[in-house]
Design a protein that fits this description.
Length: 165
């Protein structure tokens, strides 16, 4: 077998490992981005513990096929970037913010689809995922809701105690 074939097998194994280690993978078109914009975007993904990569579509298609993942054939055409994320929403929200920051009529980066917790998500689903706050924000909101009744009770008890004094 040729060296090129062996190198491609190594890349497919690398992609499979990244797919298995990620809770979500966002596929997007990136061909309108400048090098400086890609660098800034990579930095944002890195801060969110996500990895922005560009692979050949045929190698990703092979990795998906070997893992038994279906539904991405139409999305693996043209210039495609892949964002491997440790959570479900961070990659989607970073791409959504990048789209909003683009002043042009046509966005420079366009989400194609995503693979979230073993499920195919289309472009509209990616936009909906971007609207969901991060896990930390949701936990903080929940704790705030749980803490509010206790804080109100303490405030009322203190007010009653102050009236008796």
């Amino acid at each position: 077998m040729s060296e090129n074939f062996e190198a491609k097998k190594v890349v497919v194994e690398e992609i499979k490992a990244k797919i298995q280690a990620s809770k979500s993978i966002v596929l997007s078109t990136y061909d309108r981005l400048t090098v400086a914009e890609v660098t800034a975007l990579r930095r944002k993904f890195q801060q969110a513990q996500c990895e922005y990569k560009v692979y050949k579509n045929t190698l990703v298609r092979k990795a998906f096929a070997e893992l038994g993942i279906e539904g991405f054939d139409q999305d693996l055409n043209g210039a495609t970037s892949f964002v491997f994320c440790p959570d479900e929403t961070s990659g989607c929200s970073i791409i959504a913010k990048a789209i909003k920051e683009t002043p042009a009529l046509e966005p420079k980066i366009v989400p194609k689809s995503a693979y979230v917790n073993g499920v195919y998500v289309d472009a509209e689903g990616v936009k909906k995922l971007a609207a969901i706050p991060s896990r930390e924000v949701l936990i903080a909101k929940m704790l705030g809701c749980l803490q509010a009744p206790i804080a109100n009770l303490a405030f009322i008890l203190k007010a009653i105690a102050d009236q008796k004094s």
